[in-house]
Design brief:
single chain, alpha+beta, two-stranded antiparallel sheet, elongated
Length: 71
């Protein structure tokens, strides 16, 4: 179980280093008049600093090391 978590953390770390941001869309209701609704879709960007990827990779390597020592 720890080995799988380590592999997932390493994969997430690599993805965080490759894609240094991720986008998502948020829909907001601007106005409503009776049954008529006006909505606005806004794209938000969340930056991921490279340190996040490094921490994920380090945690994944540590998890693999711990799982290897138990066996």
């Amino acid at each position: 179980m720890i080995k799988m978590a380590g592999i997932i953390l390493i994969a997430l770390g690599v993805l965080a280093l490759v894609y240094q941001e991720f986008n998502y869309k948020e829909t907001k209701q601007v106005a409503q008049i009776g049954s008529l609704t006006i909505q606005d879709k806004e794209t938000k960007t969340v930056p991921l600093p490279p340190i996040v990827g490094g921490v994920f990779i380090a945690a994944g390597v540590a998890a693999l090391f711990i799982s290897g020592r138990k066996a």
